[in-house]
UniProtKB/TrEMBL annotation:
It comes from the Bacteria. GO terms for molecular function: iron-sulfur cluster binding; oxidoreductase activity, acting on the CH-NH2 group of donors, NAD or NADP as acceptor. Signal peptide: none annotated. Keywords: Amino-acid biosynthesis, Glutamate biosynthesis, Oxidoreductase. It comes from Filobacillus milosensis. Pathway: Amino-acid biosynthesis. Residues 154-475 form the FAD/NAD(P)-binding domain. GO terms for biological process: glutamate biosynthetic process. This is Glutamate synthase subunit beta. NCBIfam families: GOGAT_sm_gam. Residues 23-138 form the Dihydroprymidine dehydrogenase domain.
Amino acid sequence: MGYLTGFMEYNRKDQDVKDPVERIKNWEEYVIRFDDQEIKEQSSRCMDCGTPFCHTGAEWEGAYVGCPVNNFIPEWNELVSEENWEEALRNLEETNNFPEFTGRVCPAPCEGSCTLAINDDPVTIKSIENEIIERGFDNNWVEAKVPERRTDKRVAVVGSGPAGLAAADQLNEMGHHVTVFERDDRPGGLLMYGIPNMKLDKDTVDRRIKVMKASGIEFVCNTEVGVDITREEMKRDFDSVIMCTGAQDPRDTPIENRDSKGIHFAMDYLTAATKALETDPKNTPITAEGKNVIVIGGGDTGADCVATALRQKAKRVVQFGKHPASPDERTDDNPWPEFPMTFKLDYGYKEGLETQGEDPRKYEVLTQRFEKNESGQVTALHTMNVEKVYENGEVITNEVPGTEQKWNADLVLIAIGFLGPEQDVLEHFGLETDERGRIWTVDGTKDYRTSEEGVYAAGDARRGQSLVVWAIREGREVAEQVHAYLMDKETKQIV
Ligand SMILES: Cc1cc2nc3c(=O)[nH]c(=O)nc-3n(C[C@H](O)[C@H](O)[C@H](O)COP(=O)(O)OP(=O)(O)OC[C@H]3O[C@@H](n4cnc5c(N)ncnc54)[C@H](O)[C@@H]3O)c2cc1C
Ligand code: SF4
């Protein structure tokens, strides 16, 4: 350990962030990297405790705790506190293909299960992870991983989100020929078109794709598998196929006047906003500029819509959620080492608070109907408050009489989650799905085989909408299985 008593000498300090009023004038990342002294102090807060939970990624009474990719957190904290950065990078690369993505966007379940968090603030694990990889790129230590020898096996990965990228990276390193198919114009999945630039700059995604291409992985963009390339062509050209197509089929709210102009799914809005940044931010078909914007849905996708609308100079942004605000402290049924379900002022909400004078979030609100004018444009929303009650052990959401409210709206963004994966490509491959429309895989959390021999699935398409870190874990695990499959048999007629 760098300092044996670092956890007693230093308080937790998060990375500084740019001033919310200033940062909404541009689309740059809002977090500022630690300086040398800060990172030394923060990493030395790690106690290197005897039984760390931070790295477990294991199931604990029905919930997962700790880091899903099992990063060797105490080890690299020690290396960082000793300023042994290159060694720390090599250690981190053992478990995480893309620390620059998780270091920016992971909600850090590791920190919730840090032993220090029992009675103090946890170690700033995520920020340290990000600093390790950034110093790796700064010093050109992140190199292409070209295998010394190649097998004659060819693998197709469908979808270039974090699951597909992790699977491709692993299988390429094992010596197989890997081609990643992506229907969008740029690889990255939701890392590219989904998570906004201020959380994850797109140069960061491109930087990693460049390394992967130099490692020998082929990327074929603007190609929708099942439409532009058929199952039969895949069968002819590849020994195995991994479906990493995500779970981006949006959930709708089929209420009165849903067909009004100015009502969009969150993903259509966010994707258009990101694409516009390649030319001119104003060059988007769906802009919030000068509008009363209402985001329906209290989750993280909604939060990204709030931050995007503020940057497009919305008149006012409001976000509706069905649930009550989270408590300030852990409740009895959410103990350490579980992820703390406590109140957080996410970046977009802080920006809303500072620029609009109010937190954009409105809790326990249910949209009843939309109102439109004679040209079909949405003009307002009607809502009622709701409350949760427990009846016979079940949670029921009741409307509260007398709480009807009308909200002016020129742009409505629907961010109430996702139904699951889009079905067309799954039907094209004849894959079985489960009761929630996800790709069925053989029972057992670590079995990624689908109902078709030689076809595997990983990421959100298999587990439902989740997190980048889980997609990376699934990508790594599916690669192990596909490798075993390829090395095990004569794999010519599989799909
Ligand atoms: C707005 C938003 C913000 C988020 N923010 C965070 C965050 O801050 N932190 C976090 O950890 N997680 C976040 N998530 C969740 C996270 O992005 C996903 O869990 C993760 O990206 C899933 O990875 P994946 O590889 O399984 O799928 P995806 O990233 O969804 O990628 C699937 C890819 O497959 C492609 N595809 C689909 N069908 C075909 C086909 N037939 N042919 C070719 N290509 C195809 C799609 O175009 C897409 O590029 C966010 C999600 C959203 C929607
Ligand atoms: S990947 Fe996420 S959970 Fe794992 S160490 Fe990084 S921030 Fe923590």
